[in-house]
Amino acid sequence: MMKTIIAAYSGVLRVSGTKCEWEEAVVGTRIGTGSSILSALQDLSWLSKSKVEKQLQIISVLQWVLTFLVMGVGCTVILMYILCTDCWVIAAVYLVWLVFDWNTPKKGGRRSQWVRNWVIWRYFRDYFPIRLVKTHNLLTNRNYIFGYHPHGIMGLGAFCNFSTEATGVGQKFPGIRPYLATLAGNFRMPILRDYLMSGGICPVNRDSIDYILSKNGSGNAIVIVVGGAAESLNCMPGKNSVTLKNRKGFVKLALRHGADLVPVYSFGENEVYKQVIFEEGSWGRWVQKKFQKYIGFAPCIFHGRGLFSSNTWGLLPYSKPITTVVGEPITVPKVDHPSQKEIDFYHCMYVSSLIRLFDKYKTKFGLPETEVLDIN
């Protein structure tokens, strides 16, 4: 009986052998298809959350770099081109509106909290990353002039901290409206001027600053990058040097308006780009100073990392941490016609306060205890 059953079973296996082989082949095909899909998904590993965020960070920084370098000229050229096409009415209407709106930058601009809170600025912040450190409270019944140091190549820390809400400046200093002051020439460029004003950026000229500090109520903070173009010519990684010794105009403005002075130092601002430094007396430095004198900015030969690799050269800044520390305010009285002695006195107080701020926080942000802030 057992033999019969075994024989019958063997017979089924023989008869069904081809079918079994076919089913095995089908299963093998299915397994192979699943492996191919898994392999394809592994090839798309760059779509992981962290890598997507990194790509968004790169895009957010790149758009600002291009805005800084070419948006003004680019928009002007495009506007002129549109005037020569069938769509000339659009450009003409904008130019008419521009004439009527010409003085808006001098009157506090046209700030947009919506633009300041764009998500793109948070990706911009996280690329480096950028942090804002508060050391003292600021009274809302006073006005302030923040002296920002150092300039760096593009003042990336100044922009992120005071022209966006990415680092929470509005939450850390409630009731204070920061205005980052930059070259007045930027506000002569179509479209760019509106983009800058939306972030609370204003021209760094007397008319604009006088208006904000005298006709715009209290709780205003003008952020002036004191070293300006001259300081940018000497910035390089590992160097902590500010152009301040003979920069006293911002102190005079503070006295005329009774605005408190606040030293601000950005650790890491000089680390994000490398540039060619021309020696004093060289032809390169002569060209830079001529540009600075007649145009208001000094062209720098600099580079960061490439778009696709940190090992290549490009326009993207290196992702180095930038930490901006806002120091203790210096109370300044209102003096309509300050004397040179008064200006020198408060300038000396400001310099001493900036050095103390630097010395207090330098070791917390990666500098050795022996590091000294050079005042030029």
Automatic annotation (TrEMBL):
Any one GO molecular function term: diacylglycerol O-acyltransferase activity
Reaction(s) catalysed (UniProt annotation): 2-(9Z-octadecenoyl)-glycerol + hexadecanoyl-CoA = 1-hexadecanoyl-2-(9Z-octadecenoyl)-sn-glycerol + CoA; 2-(9Z-octadecenoyl)-glycerol + (9Z)-octadecenoyl-CoA = 1,2-di-(9Z-octadecenoyl)-sn-glycerol + CoA; 1,2-di-(9Z-octadecenoyl)-sn-glycerol + hexadecanoyl-CoA = 1,2-di-(9Z)-octadecenoyl-3-hexadecanoyl-sn-glycerol + CoA; 1-O-(9Z-octadecenyl)-glycerol + (9Z)-octadecenoyl-CoA = 1-O-(9Z-octadecyl)-3-(9Z-octadecenoyl)-glycerol + CoA
Pathway assigned in UniProt: Lipid metabolism; Glycerolipid metabolism; triacylglycerol biosynthesis
Keywords of this entry: Acyltransferase, Cytoplasm, Endoplasmic reticulum, Glycerol metabolism, Lipid biosynthesis, Lipid droplet, Lipid metabolism, Membrane, Transferase, Transmembrane, Transmembrane helix
UniProt membrane topology term: Multi-pass membrane protein
A biological process term (GO) from this entry: diacylglycerol metabolic process
GO cellular component: endoplasmic reticulum membrane; lipid droplet; perinuclear region of cytoplasm
Signal peptide: none
Family: Belongs to the diacylglycerol acyltransferase family.
Protein's recorded name: Acyltransferase
Naturally occurring in which organism (per UniProt): Platysternon megacephalum
